[in-house]
């Protein structure tokens, strides 16, 4: 955790050292993505009848087919959040097709496949556990509650690790100019042994962006629903909150880049130490060979 705090402090210092450049990047490049994310979440209540409800029903049918307990509050909440996540992803996907983001488009799409695979694997494991408990006749309310709590913890850990790997894969894709599955593999190798540091870095960034998204819902969406009109003050408040969200995204990218640099440096150092140690072990054999 100490390394995570050090990276956060260095990232903030780097952000203020290049304040003009980073704020320009936030305004020109990241602002459209932040706007699409915030607006997609604002459109969720209006999309409930045709689209969001259909996604939710599909997910609930899947849960029922897997024989998950319908009375468990965890799966009800998970159903709603997954439906909202799918809707947000579909709404923000067009921003990835802009010319400025084509270099990381393949990695972004493969990250979506990785997230889908992680969710499917977790649901498959929960499916086996709940069905095994049902077959053994142990499906009491207390057991179901304990399994639901354990499933929530397991799902949170899997999603957190998957998110960290996908974010690092985007940085690898941008720095190494590669796309698809290769950045994800590199991210998995780089993050090995540094998972706690990566999670410590992801926590403040995600909490900050979640707070900004909640502020947008409260100050902009709520006021618009109450007044029914978009006046100039509400527009500029929405603009300011969106720009602040873009700044947090830039800061998150800086932290990811610094973490990537540290991971790559450590990997090179470990490789050089291992290579040097291997060479030191072979040196006596070479001498014996020369002597013979």
UniProtKB/TrEMBL annotation:
Transmembrane spans: 21-44, 82-101, 113-133, 153-174, 195-218, 238-260
Is Transmembrane a UniProt keyword of this protein? yes
Sorted keywords for this record are: Membrane, Transmembrane, Transmembrane helix
Q: Name the PANTHER family for this protein.
A: OS08G0107100 PROTEIN-RELATED, TRANSMEMBRANE PROTEIN
Q: What's the name of the protein?
A: Transmembrane protein
């Amino acid at each position: 955790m100490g390394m995570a705090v050090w990276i956060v402090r260095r990232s903030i210092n780097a952000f203020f050292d290049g304040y003009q450049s980073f704020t320009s990047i936030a305004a020109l490049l990241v602002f459209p993505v932040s706007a699409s994310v915030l607006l997609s979440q604002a459109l969720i209540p209006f999309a409930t009848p045709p689209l969001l409800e259909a996604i939710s029903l599909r997910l609930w049918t899947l849960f029922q087919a897997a024989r998950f307990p319908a009375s468990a509050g965890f799966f009800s909440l998970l159903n709603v959040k997954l439906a909202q996540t799918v809707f947000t992803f579909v709404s923000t996907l067009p921003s990835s097709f802009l010319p400025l983001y084509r270099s990381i488009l393949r990695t972004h799409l493969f990250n979506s496949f990785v997230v889908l695979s992680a969710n499917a694997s977790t649901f498959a494991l929960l499916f086996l556990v709940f069905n095994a408990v049902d077959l053994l006749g142990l499906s009491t309310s207390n057991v179901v509650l304990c399994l639901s709590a354990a499933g929530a913890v397991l799902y949170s850990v899997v999603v957190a690790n998957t998110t960290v790997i996908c974010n690092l894969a985007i940085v690898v894709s941008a720095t190494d100019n590669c796309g698809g599955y290769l950045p994800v593999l590199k991210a998995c190798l780089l993050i090995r042994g540094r998972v706690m540091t990566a999670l410590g870095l992801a926590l403040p960034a995600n909490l900050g962006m979640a707070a900004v998204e909640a502020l947008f819902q409260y100050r902009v969406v709520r006021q618009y629903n109450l007044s029914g009109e978009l006046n100039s003050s509400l527009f500029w408040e929405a603009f300011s909150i969106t720009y602040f969200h873009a700044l947090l995204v830039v800061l998150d990218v800086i932290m990811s880049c610094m973490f990537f640099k540290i991971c790559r440096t450590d990997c090179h150092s470990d490789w050089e130490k291992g290579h040097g140690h291997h060479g030191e072990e072979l040196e006596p054999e070479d001498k014996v060979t020369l002597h013979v």
